[in-house]
Amino acid sequence: MHYKRQGWQARNQRNADARIVRVVDFERAIGQLPEASQILLMLRHCDGYSPHDLAQMSGTSERNIEYSLSAAREALGLILDRMELL
Which residue, 17, 15, 29, is CA-closest to 86? Predict the structure, then answer.
């Protein structure tokens, strides 16, 4: 099978553009969360801190961290759903 080089490149560019839009939309959705939820989600999922580590850093219980993470994820899901991204 022979592919036209330009058509293949255009399709790759469209896919890359779509990913950028999704990232921008996701960042906008996270920006609608309260600051504490944003920080908690970023520390947990981007920086890889465990709930135990987050509890020690914040001076609260691990159970409270897990509850807060769950609430933040649920709120983010609702925002993404409202933006019709889920």
Answer: 29
Distance between CA atoms of 29 and 8, rounded to whole angstroms? 32
Domain at 39, CATH number:
1.10.10.10
What is the count of structural domains for the chain? 1
| Residue-number span of the structural domain to which 53 is assigned | 5-82
Q: Are 83 and 26 in contact (CB under 8 A)?
A: no
Convert the pLDDT of each residue in 39-79 to its tens digit: 999 999 999 999 999 999 999 999 999 999 999 999 998 99
> What are the b/e assignments for 33-71, b being 16+ CB within 10 Å?
beeebeebbebbeeeebebeebbeeeeeeeeebeebbee
